## 1
Amino acid sequence: MKRLLVLSATLATLFSAFAYVPQAEGATCTGKQVSPGQNLSSVAANARAGTTFCIKDGNYAVPTPVRVQNRDRFIGMFSDGTRPSVTTTKAQHVFDANGSRGATIRGLGMSGAVGGDHCKPNCGRGIGGGTNLTINNVWSHHNQNQGIGGTGPGLLVTYSRIDHNGSPAFARFGESQSAAGIKSVNSMTVLNSRVHDNYWSGVWCDNDCDAFQVRNNTITANGKAGIHYEASSGPAVFANNVIRGNGTNAAVAGRRAGLIIYASANAEVYGNAFGSNTYYGIHVAEDDRDWTPLLGNISIYNNTMGGDAIVGCTLSGVGCL
């Protein structure tokens, strides 16, 4: 058993070391060429569904959301450590994929989405909405609510960086709380990414979000929890992640931990490396809301806790090894 624990910790560290590596997108892209100085929102609004937008390196300030339609592809073109940056000081979403299916956003940065009491929770998102949306090699940061959120089923996030999203307006105790790096109430998969320094939770599945996978990521310094699995039946898998230093926001009421499993079922937790999380590495808890799933089929094994505690192992339906 000790050998298994050491091996799982080593693998988690190795996986996470390569979890987020910015990838140059090259100089070629076949599609509608977009250059700095053009209004990306207008370009997208005047294009047909299914367009590939080849976005050249540089800065793009947008006063309104960039509209994403069915099967659109937004491809950033860069060859160094930078990437095309799409920013706003006015729009409630930087990229608005609501109503779209099968779109892709790749190789871009997005920041600055605004919102508040008048529009929450459906605002303040770097990327909002979209069914079967693929996000690859993006940097979504400093948005007032979520880096990515409000998506339909089938969200896939890979090789991306999601940080410094969320604000007090979207995390007040006793109100609708939604601040996160990534949040959805539908199925999602997050792989090989870095999720850090978000105001509330890093990756949050809520309200029976269906299939939920978080693998091979580095998830650190998020205010409430690194991973937050709430009121859902899954299935969920949390594997080979580094989950350290979460629960940093003293303004957060209630639970803080590396991984929170709250009123949920059907989850496997293995091969993760925890450490220095506030209160607990893993916190499993029941709920008195009558509509949430009963805890059950929660399996926690072969994790390296780094001195962090696991709470909830004695609850019915929870197994810890």
## 2
Amino acid sequence: MSRYSNYSISIICEGTRTEKLFFESIRDEIQTEKNDCVINVYPRNKTEINESNETNRGAYKGRKRQTNKGNKKFEIEEIKGALPLKWIEEGRRHLEDGRANEAWAVFDKDRHPKAKEAFELAEKEINGMKVNIAFSSICFEYYLLLHFECIYRKFDQCEEVNEYARKKQYWKETKKENSTYNIVKDRLQIGFADCAWLRFTSDEKEKDIPVYKRNPYTNVDKLVCKLIGEKEWKYWDTRTPVIVEYEQSHLKMELLPDGSIRFTNEGNHTFIIPENSFSIIDSETGTQICTKGQRCSLLPGQEKIEYWSDWKFSNSIFIHLKSN
């Protein structure tokens, strides 16, 4: 049994700056609005550890190192082990000892020697749960870049991404002590759409290549969606149906050449589609064009076709299934 009364999420970050500060900013923003979820970002500052009401059961006792933050010095708990395997192992410890109901490891491609082992270990259940991975290739900054541009481009080094962004005047620097969340917080919808498109394109171009070897790639948006209460965004075209997993139901959606949408309930439970539950998104601006969808209930195996003939579309769209 968890010692937390609320749902608890552990986010284990590769770095002590860019990723850590980014998710701390989201945590601080959303936890001022709601208290139904405890979000802990690791590695933690010594001050956070001292102020925490956690017990010592299962606490990881690694080395500490110092980092500057403004004019203050903070000791950072250092997680030991092989990269990036150690972050998965740490997440598993959190799930095993009850520190978290959900664990995420955030890391980059970065030529880590144990990437394959890390992804394989993350798939192994512990207490009925798995460690989720928020992965970026070549680096976290590529995820940030997708908030400004729908781009599929291989970069060999992180500094190449930063140099590209500076030339485009998207941002100046990401490695300082300021959180990069402020750079993209007003552009999250664009980022969700572009990340969905990137994964779709990656699956087409590199479908036989493991995710940890792909370049470019990111699924960091899935963690961000989770934290702010958004459903995962999907990108699809007339060639490829998409499956939406919702609780214990599976809804298959197919975009047909005439602009109609075919819905098929492939799950074992009734799937209820709320009215106007689909947002059609402009891929360049991330803004909503319109909402679609009639309220209906689909029994297992049942299908339904909706004709959205009043909406002009090209060969592909972004579609977002809203939360109930």
## 3
Amino acid sequence: MEQKKYIAIKDLVVYQITRKLSSLAWKIYEKMDWHLQKIIGDQFITSTDSVDANIVEGYRRYHYRDKIKFYYISRASFCESVYHWLELLLERNKISNDEYTEIKLVADELQIKLNNFITTTCNQINKNNE
């Protein structure tokens, strides 16, 4: 019987990209004044940090169905962060086009990796049900 190799969370590419996204979001958050942090910034950084936090929580769950639940939450937080808060910051001229482009490039890469990660986990569920 083939033994599965355990991959540390820090070695997962999807996790590494989420950490990069969080770092870029933090750079944006740090530049905000207190008022902007309270209005938009807190929700932006919370939703961004939730992406990697839910990947970690799901990854450490035993059952695949538990894992997938947290990965779906991670994807929803990703969408909130990138498609709402980041876009709102750009629309309101609270971040530069360069900052937007930098974080959007990472987000575009993450979207693909996160969807692939979820699909792989779902395929494991289907494989175990056969």
## 4
Amino acid sequence: MNPGYDAYLNSEAWQHKRQQVLERDDWQCRCCDAISQGRYSIEDLQVHHRHYDNFGHEPLEDLTTLCPECHDAITAVHRRRRYRAQTLPDVCPEPTLSRSIEVTKYDTEVSDLSAHGACPDHPAQRTHRQSVRSVGQGSQSYLKQAFQDRC
């Protein structure tokens, strides 16, 4: 983890703030009844940062008491939102026909067309392949079809 984050969570200031939050929330997970159902003990309760905008100086309203299960679930949702992949457009831009195209061959003997640099907004995922031959200049219609199939 982050050394500054870990140091803060081990500090006396955090321990005092954590205690205040646990008392405010009556030593209960704010999402479920894990303590009253006997799934966790009071010692297992965790204090969750709703956000880190005021980290180190957070008001009590930025913190909430959770059991480990709810804390993991909420953290997973936050991480998915933060690190989700960007969606690609449904349609690639029109190909630039002046770029070179190679017919390549995969180890499994399946042929593929690879338009190097023809779709600049989409990074290529290169696999281990061996160049077979270059497509000639007279293959403009095949180039367009290959580009559409690729994107």
